[in-house]
Specification:
The complex is a heterodimer of chains A (1136) and B (495). Chain A has 1136 residues and is mainly beta. Helices cover 9% and strands 44% of the residues of chain A. In chain A, β46 and β47 (953-956) form a beta hairpin. With 495 residues, chain B is mostly helical. Chain B has one domain: Serine Threonine Protein Phosphatase 5, Tetratricopeptide repeat. Chain B is 47% helix and 6% strand. Chain B has helices at residues 2-24, 41-44, 48-64, 77-81, 97-100, 117-135, 143-168, 179-182, 190-207, 229-242, 246-257, 292-297, 315-318, 326-331, 368-381, 385-399, 420-435, 441-448, 452-463, 478-483, and strands at residues 38-40, 85-87, 278-282, 311-313, 332-337, 340-345, 363-367. Chain B has a two-stranded antiparallel sheet with strand order 2-4. In chain B, strands 3-7 form a two-stranded antiparallel sheet. In chain B, a hairpin with a 2-residue loop joins β5 (332-337) and β6 (340-345). In chain B, α7 (143-168) runs parallel beside α10 (229-242) and α11 (246-257) packs antiparallel against α15. Chain B is globular and about 115 Å long. Classes of the chains: A mainly beta (1136), B mainly alpha (495). At the A-B interface, β31, β33, β34, β37 and β38 of A face α1, β1, α3, α6 and α20 of B.
Chain lengths: 1136, 495
Amino acid sequence: MNYLIHTGHGVPATDQNCRYSRGKWKKSIVIMKFTFFFLFVSLQAWAVATAQNVSIQVRDAKFSDVLIEIRQQCGYGYVMKGADLKIAKPVTLNLKSASIETSVQSLFDGQPFEYRLDHDTKLILIRRKGSTSQPAKTQKTSLILSPPDGKQTTLTGFVKDKDGNPLPGATVMLKGSSFGGITGADGSFVVPNAPENGILIVTMIGRETKEVLYRNFKVPEIILREVDNELTEVQVIAYGQVQKKFTTSNINTIKGEDIARQPVTNPLLALQGRTPGLFISQTTGQTAGNVNVVVQGRNSIMQGSDPFYVIDGIPYTPQFTNNSLLGTNILGAGGSTFNFINPADIESVTILKDADATAIYGSRAANGAILITTKKGRAGQTKVDLNMQQGWGKITKRADVLNTPQYLEMRKEAYTNDGLAIPTTATPPSSSNFDLTIWDQNKNTDWQEELIGGTAQLTTAQVSVSGGTERTQFLAGSGYTRQTTVYPNPLADIKYNVHLNMNHKSDNNKFSFMINANYLQDRNRLNNDDLTSQAVKLAPNFPNLYNADGTLNWAPYPNNPNVYSIQNPLASTLNEYSATTDNLMGNALLGYEFLPGLSFKSTFGYNKLSAEERVLNPIEAQRPDIQNRQGAARFLNKSISSYIIEPQITYAKTTDAGVFDLLLGATFQETKTNIVGYDAFGFSNDSQLGNIGAATSVVPTPNNLKAQYKYSAVFGRFNYRLKDKYIVNVTARRDGSSRFGSENMFHNFYSVGGAWLFSEEKFFKGAAPFLSFGKLRVNYGTTGNDQIGDYAYATLFETISVGMPYQGVVGVIPQRHSNPNLQWEETKKLNVGLDLGFLNNRINFSGNYFRNRSSNQLIEYQEPGMTGFPTVTMNFPATVQNTGFELLLDIEPLKQTELNWRVSINATIPRNKLAEYEGLATSSYANQYILGEPVNIVRLYQWAGLDAQTGTYVFRAADGNLVNIPNFETDQTAFVNPNPKWYGGVSNTLSYHGFQLDFLLQYVNQLGTGNRFITNGFGFMNQNAPVYVFERRWRQKGDETDVEKFSTRTSVPGSFARSSTGRWTDASFLRLKNVSLSYSLPNHLLNQAGIKAARIFLLGQNLLTFTDYEGSDPETKVFGKLPPLRMYTAGLQVTF
Amino acid sequence: MKRSFKIQYILRSQTILLVLLFAASCKKYIEVDTPETSISSESAFSSNSGAVQVLTGIYTEMTRRSENGAFYTISVLPELSADNLALYDPDGSTDYVDYYRNSLDPQYLNTNEDWTFWKIGYQQLYTINTAIEQLDGNTKLNSLVAKRLLGEAYFMRAFYYFNLVNFYGEVPLVLSTAYQQTGQLRKSSSDQVYSQIISDLQKAEGLLDFSYVSSDMVKTTTERIRPNLAAVYALEARTYLYQKKYAEAENAATKVITQTGYALSSLEGAFLKNSTETIWGLPSVEIGFNTREAYLFLLPDYGPDTWQYPVYISESLLNSFEAGDGRKSSWLGVVSVDNIDYYYPAKYKQGYEGLSKNLVEYSIALRVAEQFLIRAEARNELNNVEGAVEDLNALRAKRRAAVSAGVPNPLPPLQNTLSQAQLRPIILNERRVELFTEGGHRWFDLRRSGTIDAVMTEEETVKGGTWAGYKVFYPIPRYDILRNQNLEQTPGYIR
């Protein structure tokens, strides 16, 4: 006789194929008792959730037959007390995948019985209605699994999926020992030194965990079902893993497959809209640009709001120093270092938000933590994966600007308005009138088409080989990515990457070893300037950019060819920019299990991110009238290298009093930053610019840097779980950082969290049978922020780099005010969460309320320039509070074998405010911050439209009067909250046979600066205007309109209008962020060709945007910068 | 047996952990060295060379910087504000137009607000104050080196405050690096500032001598590029003159004029490096430049333009030269474009020359001719007309053009029969034609002489701006007003 016991190590037993036959009824009861006794005695802390589904369609069936059917489908037996089933009425039922509660409730409806469901014992306890006797109670007896009779031998068995296919790569362990094995390609396993009777624990990623009882060395066939309930997923957390069901934290995970569905080269962009509490915005459509990531709002007034990033256990710097030779027109020129992470190598991304999840990272995780796990090898047949994509991208929206007749009319009207004569071709040309004097009056060029109207190309190819045995697994992958821009040149950004992973366990399973390496080289040859601004602003009659011979046109004066009228915007494209960036990440883990449950392990990580940049300035790119034209070049080498060692001891113990998990560890980390730059001049030949030896003069650039950051800590975590219902989690960390003065190098952080799985309570099960899962979480703790520069506490002098040092001595100057008392910024976080599952977890809801209060704010306190420097880094008694609600709803409206539909909806309603600020009124921020309002509040003048008499803007002053020139201090009475009011996303997955359709909608409700007041007035030379400006301009006295009269001079009221309410507009949007359509080719076709799987897919990014926003893009909210591109890609994935 | 084995394991692992925990909370693991690219303030002043680097840094910054407010712009911006320089394309030149049209009002809207005499001046004063704090009583340095450097630091503080008080009228006296206190200072009256200048200069007097030293602070050199005692007296003379302490001004100027090694040079030689007329000059530290003044002023063949060569000599200054004044022919250049003559300052003649490290000219901070003019003015105010005329004539003799057919009597000597009142405008004009596009003299002289309102009201008709009396002083940058509640804006300006 074989026995199957489903305990699942906390995984709900979902096996519906319990094999109890009718004829073995009595025995079944014994078995059942055995089962629940076992559960009670050995594993009482492991939950047995109620995920069983019952499907019964019967008409006038016997009551007892239905009870047996239920027992067969899900293992719930029954016990009678003072009842006789003969008095039962016939049963008619129609249940489809109903929960046990629903099923039993339906069954007993109208019957002369009362019942009680006992989930612990998996019994339906039945008594006659009105009977005084208590429903049967289970009895506890002791259980001895395998008497130590000394008999041992080698066990063999098979692990299969529910369709009977072998499952390679499953781990089979002998419970209570370190013996075990991993299944081979045929699903078979061998466990040495097994006793005659015992329990096997079978685990496999992505499948339920099972405990299997065997007798007399005979192992039954083991069937492992796929985990299709996200609660059972294993979740990555700081320094470990936890089952999602038992987590006490506010954590979300994004799977690698969701990232792979998006044609982006920066993996952070693939997280947009997918998770509550995480707000990501792209600053520019230019690759290598920065990406803003904010978790649960901005905690710090001034300092970094970057979350703490950890890739495979190694902290990763999100910003690659501030130094870059990239043009300043490209926002965030330091660049996101995630451009140097290959999205295809990512297995999962986990976002840790509350103190419970992040306090163990101490001073670095006040802004949350984002853990990235790369792909690992798995045991099984060696397989080769190939993935290729080709994509095309265009800008999503163009600005509507004036054509030449309109433009010239605007210009002429400006002269007339100013009382000046309109220049003609007879007027002496000057830089203020070329467009009217020497440029073609009839030429009309669409500069947006010329400069940013191209098609960007994206090509990627990834190949990987993986496989291994039960003890050793490997994964090796390599890839290629090539990306171009919409600019009129063929420059490209090319990435090559390699990913390696190897896992090994010793024969006795005590020693484990893992090594991981990622390497990426990025060769960026893209334009170092953003041409969007020029594309929008250039006059439509601006001369052609190239001469007939292909050289740059500098548009000489007609009668004086030695004088030139333009700065050619394409000159910057000749200033060849190149950056070669290498990113090497290596990490290793060594572990040893001293005793069952007691392990020592240590991780070792190393990361070196280095870049060589250069910008060449050839003579060809310089205006011919510049005196002494000569070639020049700038070189910049920079690197950030860091190592980290984290030894840890873990101890896990399961006792009658609950499950204990203890972690103790320490961190040693050092990061070195190195920046060396130099300027080389005096190249006489453009072709020699890359050769520094050909320069006649080489000068080091300022801001060369060699800096060092050291960090060390001890940390611990204690987790206790009672009866799988009550969980307590306590973490603590003591941190030391070199960024602070000697008085304040150390600090302690802690958190306390708890969870209650109330759905496991008996009283709840009866009361709300529709509720299949319910958990309440509360946690509180502290984290810190040390995102200030290195050495901020010390006064340092830096050398002044010059070509000819003064009197031969290299001078030095102080860099800033020092503050030896610098301390941590501390964030106290409170998180209350509720997780609910309905209808057998087909509907899952997760809600969180958070309140994060950051105090002792580290700010760049503004000092008057008269003190020597405009700022000093200091702690300030201000408190910033972020509160908000995060909601996540996962629904499976359709769950059939052929057609499946999943919807995931998330929403975040954040609120940020300056909660406390001692002495705000007398501080240098009196005019910037408002108590109770967001820290990044924007103070504005009240725009009151246009004075119809004069054609100039007017503002409502504090005293209510209308003025042209408001007072800076008193009249900025309006304010605007630039933070999103709410945001979120809706993702859908539809699958039908081999087809799968995924699409993601992202929505943001926010305000932003639009395309009004982009300059201080209109009517200047070579400054084109949006069409609405032309249509709505003031022309004469009495014109009731809202656009100022044209003028050749800067408008002072116009410049105030730029910081007035009139510039702000609704920038809310709903965007079809991503669509993915894929088709998996049928297996029978592929198998003949020796292919395991093949899939073709079409992807689209930023496809549609619904918005009332007037500017170019509501996400970047900046006028004249390249917006995110609309991308389409087509691809193929093949597995051999 | 097996059990003790386990205990051993536990003990061992616990011991390892304890050691690690202890280690991690040890300061040693988080202490970092000063970055190699920087030096700490302690180490900067614990060696002779480090201390020299700090003071040299002050001079390097003076000559390296190019923003508005940098040292050489003292020869440009106030000249634009006054009546000596014209701006070619006012509407196109956003950097200069508000200085030119006296429209630094209300909030520096159209200028590069960030860079001002205020900002750069106080930045330099921070370094200077650091040097004074660290050098005063410093025993780690060679005493001669420390003494000399401290003298230079006091001199430099006086130099910067002289310019600040003349640009802004009243300024806060920041005399330390303690930003907690200095950030909330009120303005001191100009009298207090002048007293501080004199006090600093008197301290410098006791620390410096007439020799010029090389970068080791000991060996003498012919390079007149570090301030010495002559520079201290020269600045003293100027300060006393502005304070109307004429006897002291005369006395200080005399100390320079009579010192061996200082004399008026020829027209051609006055601005060459280390000329006998130079008291203190600053060599370029950037390859290709001799002086930034020449780079800006010397016009190319095609004349002025909007961006690179926006300024030239005003009509008003051009008309101030007497017949036969060699300064007009020698210190002005001219370029003719479309039949318009553009005159430009050509005191410095070395323009930008690619990669040249060959220095012929230094930017002059103090020179002897000014001392003659100071003494002439002081003597005249002391009713010593004869003495004043004597000094003026000494200068005119050196500035006289050759006799020609058209001008048989070039720049004749002045008669000492002139009255004190008659001599005043003559001295004012002499200062104008001698000291144009140098040191902001014209702008300050117009104010001192009380003629500014009349002159500027007239001049604005050319410039296209409007004049008001309060504009003699520049407005204080808005951000300082906002950050220091005790700081008041220059009277007349909207805060």
